[in-house]
Write a structure and sequence with these properties.
Length: 167
């Protein structure tokens, strides 16, 4: 097995372990049991029904309805407070860290699979790099293709005026 393959495998395994640790260790704390307000709402509405039975005039009904509104608004305020507490907690940073590890894995893979000839001599001098069999092979970049021939000067400019022949 080539050394580069071993290095690639060990590096990618280390990145995979780091991704697992990030996914498990950076998990935000679990929220407390959600506050159930169903029982509080049921209690407030039951009290309203009992109070409506004793309200025999419009002003008394208005007072009962005000009490119910007050009770329901208090329940709503407690729910909003619990939502604000949840929002104020530390945000989940796992996605950012996992993205960073994914980019690191792609860069690690690309750096170790990039052909050696790409890093070979960029000048006209020859460089020898061992190939897979362990022998040295000259790795010169092929010369660039020659430029296309330029057209003759007479074809560069075409006179748009019609030509007439003298008889």
């Amino acid at each position: 097995m080539r050394l580069i393959t071993i290095i690639r495998t060990v590096g990618l395994a280390a990145i995979a372990i780091a991704a697992f640790v990030v996914a498990v260790a950076l998990r935000p704390p679990q929220p407390d049991a959600p506050m159930s307000s169903a029982s509080a709402v049921t209690k407030a509405l039951a009290e309203a029904d009992l109070n409506e039975l004793t309200a025999d005039s419009a002003p008394k009904q208005q007072v009962v309805n005000g009490w119910v509104a007050r009770d329901l608004l208090a329940i709503n305020a407690r729910q909003n407070d619990s939502l604000l507490e949840l929002a104020a907690r530390e945000p989940d940073q796992r996605q950012a860290w996992l993205m960073l590890l994914a980019v690191l894995a792609i860069c690690w893979w690309g750096a170790l699979t990039w052909p050696a000839s790409a890093f070979a001599a960029t000048t006209d001098s020859a460089a020898s790099v061992p190939d897979d069999a362990g022998t040295e092979a000259a790795t010169l970049l092929p010369p660039p293709p020659p430029p296309p021939p330029s057209p003759p000067p007479s074809e560069l400019f075409i006179d748009p005026r019609p030509t007439t022949a003298n008889p």
